[in-house]
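FORM 7B: Structural annotation worksheet

SECTION A. Query
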Amino acid sequence: MNRFSYRPYYERNLPHFQPAGATLFVTFRLAGSLPVRVIQELLAQSEQWTLKAQAAADSKSREMIALQAQRALFAHWDEALDLARAGSRWLAMPEIAALVADAFHHLDGQSYELLGFCVMPNHVHAVLTPLNGGDGEPQSMSAVLHSLKSFTAHEANRHLHRQGQFWQHESYDHWVRNVKECRRTLNYVCANPVKAGLVEDWHDWQWTYVRELE
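SECTION B. Predicted structure
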């Protein structure tokens, strides 16, 4: 099994859940977009949550703690990205933001069903449902993101006349369990530019897309 094979659960620095057919809320950021201090704080928090999970009495309790950890770490991480005014901000350039937005739409219907996304100056939010591959097995989120991030990194670096890492390797993802949670998540995605003080109305942020839910 390679690192892009489908697995319903795995861990790196963060826990990752992907039940077959699940809709996921995913966030990934530019390399160099957060200061070392914030990363160290997040790692320390992650270690505390890991110890708490290890002390849990059973697997169900450990899974609940892992989900709590995921949400708590994401809240800290996303707020830090919204407040950051230093570090990598290549996505603030319209041509780079457009490149990423176009890539999301290009893979819609091929790798996933796209429900929405928002391209921020230093990170990206998306809500999508990975589709099955040619073998009938679900495509893993890691494989889907690898394809998207590899292409956009290459094209962005070419446009910027630079080399080196463009995206941070690990991404945050959260299993969206039902339509109600999906609507709430899409509202969060749309509100991100407003929360970050970039616009007053989310409709004014050019790099936001939301598909109407049935």
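SECTION C. Observations
The radius of gyration is 17 Å. Residues 26 and 173 are 4 Å apart (CA to CA).

SECTION D. Sign-off
Analyst initials: ____
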